[in-house]
LURP-one-related family protein (Streptomyces thermoviolaceus subsp. thermoviolaceus), 164 residues
Amino acid sequence: MRFLVRDRILGIGDDYWIEDEHGRKVFLVDGKAMRLRDTFELKDAQGRVLIDIHQKMFALRDTMVIERDGQTLAKIRRKRLSLLRNHYRVSLADGTELDVSGKILDREFAVEYDGELLAVISRRWLSVVDTYGVDIVRDDADPALLIAVAVCVIHLAEKEREEG
C-alpha cells in the first residue's frame, strides 16, 4: 500500500490529507493549536480519530507518544548514542521496538522491525512537488501506526533542526 503525504513543515494547527495511490483521501492529520504540547490527531476520511499523537511532557529528551483509544501504542525518541542523528527508536506497548533510520529531513528513510522492512518513506518515486510517499511493505502492518510514526519522526527531526 502506498500513501501520499503533502509535505509541509508541520506546525501546530496544520491540517493536511494523506491520500492513497489512487488519489482518494484516506487519513487527515489534524494539528491541534493552542495546546501546551505538540498534538496531532490522525483521523479517517469520516472524521473518526484513529490515533492521537502528542509530545510527552517533562521528558529528558523529546519524545512523541502515539495512542489509540486512550491506550499508549508507542513512544518515539531519537536513539541514544547513535552516530547518526537520523536514527529513532519506536518502543511499542508490547515491549517490541521498531527502528527508524535514514535521511529524515530529506524524507528518505525506512521503518524496520527486527531487521525486517515494514515501510519505506521516500520522495524518489514521486513527481509531485512537496510530496513524499509512505510505502507499507507488509500486508499485515498497521498503516495508521506507520504513518503516525513517520509524522512523529519528521516532526522531531524538524524540531531538533530548529533548536540546533
User: Anything to note?
Assistant: The first strand starts at residue 2 and ends at 6. The mean pLDDT is 84. The chain is about 15% helix and 45% strand. The two ends are 35 Å apart (CA to CA).
